[in-house]
Specification:
Chains A, B, C, D: Homodimer. Four copies of one chain form a homotetramer. Helix content of chain A is 51%, strand content 16%. Chain A is an alpha+beta fold. In chain A, α8 (251-287) runs antiparallel to α9 (299-329) and α10 crosses α12. The model of chain A has no long low-confidence stretch (mean pLDDT 95).
Amino acid sequence: MHFGHDDKTNELLAKVTAFMEAEVYPAEAVFKEQVEQAVADDSWSFPPIVMEIRAKAKAQGLWNFFDPSDHGAGLTNLQYAPIAELTGRSIQLAPAAFNCAAPDTGNMEVLSMFGTDEQKKTWLEPLLAGDIRSAFAMTEPQVASSDATNVELSIVRDGDEYVINGRKWWITGAMNPDCKIFIVMGKTDPEASRHRQQSMILVERGTPGFEIIRGMRVFGYHDRDHGGHAELRFTDVRVPASNIIGGEGEGFAIAQARLGPGRIHHCMRSLGIAERAIEMMSKRASERVAFGKPIAEQGVVRDWIAESRVKVEQLRLLVLKAAWLMDVAGNKAAHTEIQAIKIATPQTVEWILDKAIQVHGAGGLSQDFPLAEWFAGMRTLRFADGPDEVHKNALARAEIKKWA
Amino acid sequence: MHFGHDDKTNELLAKVTAFMEAEVYPAEAVFKEQVEQAVADDSWSFPPIVMEIRAKAKAQGLWNFFDPSDHGAGLTNLQYAPIAELTGRSIQLAPAAFNCAAPDTGNMEVLSMFGTDEQKKTWLEPLLAGDIRSAFAMTEPQVASSDATNVELSIVRDGDEYVINGRKWWITGAMNPDCKIFIVMGKTDPEASRHRQQSMILVERGTPGFEIIRGMRVFGYHDRDHGGHAELRFTDVRVPASNIIGGEGEGFAIAQARLGPGRIHHCMRSLGIAERAIEMMSKRASERVAFGKPIAEQGVVRDWIAESRVKVEQLRLLVLKAAWLMDVAGNKAAHTEIQAIKIATPQTVEWILDKAIQVHGAGGLSQDFPLAEWFAGMRTLRFADGPDEVHKNALARAEIKKWA
Amino acid sequence: MHFGHDDKTNELLAKVTAFMEAEVYPAEAVFKEQVEQAVADDSWSFPPIVMEIRAKAKAQGLWNFFDPSDHGAGLTNLQYAPIAELTGRSIQLAPAAFNCAAPDTGNMEVLSMFGTDEQKKTWLEPLLAGDIRSAFAMTEPQVASSDATNVELSIVRDGDEYVINGRKWWITGAMNPDCKIFIVMGKTDPEASRHRQQSMILVERGTPGFEIIRGMRVFGYHDRDHGGHAELRFTDVRVPASNIIGGEGEGFAIAQARLGPGRIHHCMRSLGIAERAIEMMSKRASERVAFGKPIAEQGVVRDWIAESRVKVEQLRLLVLKAAWLMDVAGNKAAHTEIQAIKIATPQTVEWILDKAIQVHGAGGLSQDFPLAEWFAGMRTLRFADGPDEVHKNALARAEIKKWA
Amino acid sequence: MHFGHDDKTNELLAKVTAFMEAEVYPAEAVFKEQVEQAVADDSWSFPPIVMEIRAKAKAQGLWNFFDPSDHGAGLTNLQYAPIAELTGRSIQLAPAAFNCAAPDTGNMEVLSMFGTDEQKKTWLEPLLAGDIRSAFAMTEPQVASSDATNVELSIVRDGDEYVINGRKWWITGAMNPDCKIFIVMGKTDPEASRHRQQSMILVERGTPGFEIIRGMRVFGYHDRDHGGHAELRFTDVRVPASNIIGGEGEGFAIAQARLGPGRIHHCMRSLGIAERAIEMMSKRASERVAFGKPIAEQGVVRDWIAESRVKVEQLRLLVLKAAWLMDVAGNKAAHTEIQAIKIATPQTVEWILDKAIQVHGAGGLSQDFPLAEWFAGMRTLRFADGPDEVHKNALARAEIKKWA
């Protein structure tokens, strides 16, 4: 057992830290202004500053860290974890800057693992190059999304084409006009066995019958900077049969393969959010004076800061262990650990953000600080890929079985 | 000791309940659309539907319930409490419909108690009539607002005028162009004793030098329906000397007089929010099916619903007792109880809203349900009139003293 | 609505307060010594000091407050509530001193409501006089006691007698040799409908075949002062047929009738424990110095004290409301409120005791202070009459039904 | 980074697991009976079964795992951690069985690091051999023990002797007659600088003037099996000058050196308690039927089990990381991590035990299961070596300083 990072990770951490300090943190103020402007312009594209920083990062080879293949940085999950955490410290800017933002990362993984050569050439390459963006359309408004077998969108073969009908919502990134390609999950065979009914199919933006209805908001946020969360309608949308990914009936398996890394990446980045919040809370507590002394002198504020530190240290180690297990024993072997971090992360980081907000006073809830927006994002993680309660239930069932 | 409402209250409750069912709840959908449109139009006025319902309520004499005088409904705090709770069930519509919305209610109380005849004629009458709206400008961005003696805005006598310079923020209602009058707290005599330095002064919208800088947002919400929360700048703003309220040095005393009822009104309405959330959570749990059964069958969901009921019953009784104490022994005698409900209300109702959101799935965080917006509003109560921690500290000090 | 006590209550409160100060609190130290001695002597009787105080209380007419009939103090539940709370402040001494201790109170109620004249003469009169003690034997080791229909002890008619076989545990008071009479719940007709199978029967201490196996301990406490918690075995125990209470098949109904008041009395007394703990915590915080200042100056300690006050005020009002509802509308109408206080009381008071212990340092866990023993007693309330979870489940079911 | 144990650890784990299964778990029932008997006999010695198992363990070389030197097992902290956790699964039997029980381990470390050759020969050797037991006397009843500089017991040089006067309490192990040697902390020079006033001195049991006053109880438990917790009085106790450890003024430094490993050992063992509790809770939930189904089917019970697993996984990793840091960078470098586990362990394990008790019903609080006794022990850890609040305060101070 050993708790230090390897040399490769440390070197990369140094580079990414330097880039964060030189390019990312100083850009946060401009980014905020540009996002405000985007509201006025009703724009959903990446703000210009993001494009500028992406260009610099790409030029320096700080790119595609998430990608374990030789197209990317070739990092293991364990090596990627602290890098991803670092990007979480500027969650709206940094993951996008390094082409490591969800949902593109998961989509690239899907195409990389299950795509045909043609699919890779047409969609994976521009995604890896950062030229386009993508979306993953699974959740549907009318069914409980906690069970992937519930999807109702229909995909019907008709000659050389598939015809798609149905609705989706909470499709992150879809409002961004640069989001050119959608991986859409639906049912090709409602008569097949429970986990063989679903397929994944590629739908290009602008295909006739494909409509973007509206952007879902989280609390009052549009999340324009990462392309919002769209509600979509598919009405007799026709795509070439070659757009199917991995074959009919493979949809559930692909979804499962995509979820493991997706979940842990969220958790890794969330650690960065927590660390930034602790830093902000500590600084604010030192600077803000009330009743004649810095609020850092107040016992309750200290209690929050101490608990935050104690919580985040524990959480990080579990995320790292899950990453290591995925590396050495596979995603399936890390199932319990991935569930555990999926459960622990939002509750922990939400708690820390709540306290950081409280230390900032009413301003902490406003546009003057990013804390409330981070809280909103973290709150969604208690639903993303199924509500916490579903995961706890499954984890407990496995635990009880161990002893039965 | 007796836990039933008196006849007057029960009769009024019946009338208000009927009005809510006939006019308010059915209007919620239209209201929501109009608020969405207001964003597009950058409007901050009351949505038209509110004006329509106000007219109907006023015509039926369902008006100014908050006002204990004979201008209003002549209710005690204890009688008003369940009415205010009822309006909290449709928090964005109902308080405004009955001319019982903050901050107007508190401002009318200030004018009623401390205003000159001329001030009453010019400002109180149109407020009571619902013809204009008002704001209360106390909080400042650069100082901890938890201590009312901290205000820095300067009010300097110059002949027959006062000259005002300074900044304010979180001035609720101020973005609404119908908000015609501002009660502004500032310092007239920085040399006076600590609680005699402050004065309240009336500033009319549009006075030269008075600027509305921007609207503060709460979790991304503009709160347009109740006039937002403005940041204001006063630059050599000149008002007639007769605009002072109650005389120089009275500002702190007036602020204190205003706070007691203001706090308890918030708490009363919050009970209505909690009740509506429990209702929504219960209904949703009955209707939504996951893994083959209504989620109302899940033990964890039941636990949330039971805890919600147990919490809200306790909270309501304490709010009612505080109201009763204010009636029979005065606001000062009810000090501890008012502090206690100020502390207990947001933490309790926030907890309930969090669970109601979780039962609604991701939709619970979106614009499709009001729960996230209510959560955001409730979260601000942990700061309003000073953060919880200040109140807990004071309450504990008094408790310890009892036994020393 | 009115939150003040009536004159009768206030007069009685004054008398009981005076008695507590003159006789009860000063006796606590002696009581503790005598309980220690009881361990050495393996005695389970009331310590002598309790008998002395009982005699004084009885002589002053401070006796049987719990009894709403004209044998007792003739108090309503609402009038009894603050008196019971007062006795809770010295929970090991005061309820016994006034002949208001469980389980005797509930047993007297059963005999009073359902007993024959002979049963009343033989058992109720000496209990009201405080000459003997009693026990209520319902819980069984081998079945989940959360459902009263589960009892398995068999009661079989044989001529003029009933023959009893079975086991019971957690029979409070039974170790005390003065506990002369047991109300035993068992099955007389396993074939009857679910709530008609059970009966209650009187078994005198010393009846052949009746054995006291051992005392159950709670944490490490024997609870000798209130007669411990016994495990009992009944082997062909024969009692006269006239010992049945209320008739065969009435057991379940009697148990239900007994539970309502039993639960609320526990809650009333628990408020007194909480108040005493807050007082002790506040005093200790003032007196104990660490790192150069009283720990009352520490923000975290203040937070605990404030939260304790806020919690206990809310809890008390709900207990009082439940008592009032029982008085004006009957125990059935107060069902939800009784469930609510059954759920809220132990979790609230346990929380307060935990903090009071922490303020007392390690001594707070020891025999030098009563806090840990109170905590242990409060912890048992989360099981008594069924675990919290059962009550929450039922309460939630009713809440959901309201909205379905 | 790597999360697997090394071969040495895995081999030892296998051996200790086998021994636990062959000797320890089967002996738990006998042990319990013997402890009950010890109460009757007022005995404080190790129960005979412990002596038998110790003999077997020693014979198999399963001995002194805690000791990193070549007298012991030569394990690093990281290697010892999972072994210690394993012994925590039978916390009353296993640590003693392997001569790894507190406070002997810490005392042996003190003698090993700071003792003279003669002290080692006289006291360390029989302790390592398991022939005697020892105690560490630091805490005093009259001062806040959270600050080691507070000790008041006086140690005065008088010729070739030291004369000791003062009081101590909570001296674990001291009631056991086999506890032959006491390491006593006191002041040799009240005029010296703050951390140079204290010294450690050896006092043999039976030295004139040395009295054992009484055993402190924890939640009613005597903790006879590990020698109780004594209150001691020293009245002109005279010991040879050679009994001083490390020299006058070294007391504070020795105390600090002892605390780091002491704390982490407690945390390691506590993980074993938590694991055993999860196992018991899971098994009981599978077996116990209520309302027609195993309580493992209840959502709330599953929620507890899932949360327990998620919590304990995080806690363990932080304990292991702290151990690793101590090994590679020294105890000082691991300061924050040791504080963090000191804070996190009791609150986590207490929570798990509370839920495990609830799943066991009232029996869970009684002598029929070890859960309540474990809870009591865990509760003391929130005070041991200073209350949590002191540690949180210090940890927060350091965190804030990082960002100032």
